[in-house]
Amino acid sequence: MNKPLVGAFLAALLLGAGVAPVVAAEPAQQAQESASKAGPAAKAVTFAGTVALSNCSGSVVRSPDSAPTDPALVLSNGHCLESGFPGPGEVVVDQPSSRTFTLLNASGDGVGTLKASKIAYGTMTDTDLSLYETTSTYQQIEDSYGIRALELETAHPTAGTAITVASGYWKRTYSCDIDGFVHQLKEGRWTWKDSVRYTPECQTIGGTSGSPVIDDATGKVVAVNNTGNESGQECTDNNPCEVDENGEVTVREGINYAQQTYNMVPCIGAGSKIDLDREGCGLPKP
């Protein structure tokens, strides 16, 4: 995974309060130097609507059918949950949470704090995502901060699409293209399906976990950033491998990945309720 970061001092310095899972942190200087190597972001993509968690990145998202009065949802990774990594086959639904998120404006400045009411959904099975329901509605966020939620794309993305990974944690962006899609991406105990593979320019790092992957042309979220092969090992933690339909394994050292989000849009019902039985919902069930 693009490791969630820990360390009370670092988290407090960057974001304020928060508790992170126990995972080794990348030194801040090294992380910032790595991030600075990323290519320039597309001009149309800003930080507006992104958030910083205590240990990861995220974004305020909505489906095309979301109403202004619906509770706002925050998207991040399953491995960024405050309760720790969900095990293979584990799905978290409707769990109370009081987690907070620092909301960023277009320039990357923190303009306010959003608070979760619950973990609406979280898993690391087949995908790696979490959705928090917040105590604020989309309209309240727009009225208070002038920031609209990022809209989720409803269709499968295509290879060659220009994208930007926008990290609210580091307040940095990474620009590249979608290189292709991975039948199965295996990392340690977890397996993810139909993952997005970036071209090499997106050198995401620890703390970028949960960042929205934004289509530069439409401004819509097509995926959530989650992992990369750090040292060329095969299918180990922090070194995911690709497995094709025939079981052939490929290792791509230095290449990073994301999990698609179009298949979760049908799961979002009225009032931002996650209904895994809705037609077209592609998220794993408990």
What this model shows, in words?
By secondary structure, the protein is mainly β. 8% of the residues lie in helices and 36% in strands. It contains three helices and 16 strands. A six-stranded antiparallel barrel has the order 1-2-3-7-6-5. It has a six-stranded antiparallel β-barrel with strand order 9-10-11-16-13-12. About 13% of the residues have low confidence.
Estimate the helix proportion, in percent: under 10%
Distance between the termini: 22 Å
Uncertain spans? 7-42
**Structural class, judged by helices and strands?**
mainly beta
Pfam family, one: Trypsin_2
Keywords: Signal
Organism: Streptomyces globisporus
Protein name: Serine protease
SSE blueprint:
Blueprint: H1 8-15, H2 28-35, E1 50-52, E2 57-62, E3 71-76, E4 91-96, E5 100-104, E6 110-123, E7 129-137, H3 138-145, E8 150-151, E9 162-167, E10 172-187, E11 190-198, E12 212-215, E13 221-228, E14 241-243, E15 249-250, E16 256-260
Parallel strand pairs: 2-8
Antiparallel strand pairs: 1-2, 1-5, 2-3, 3-7, 4-6, 5-6, 6-7, 9-10, 9-12, 10-11, 10-14, 11-16, 12-13, 13-16, 14-15
Identify the notable features of this structure and list them briefly.
6-stranded antiparallel beta barrel, signal, Peptidase_S1_PA, 6-stranded antiparallel β-barrel, Peptidase_S1_PA_chymotrypsin, mainly beta, Serine protease, 286 residues
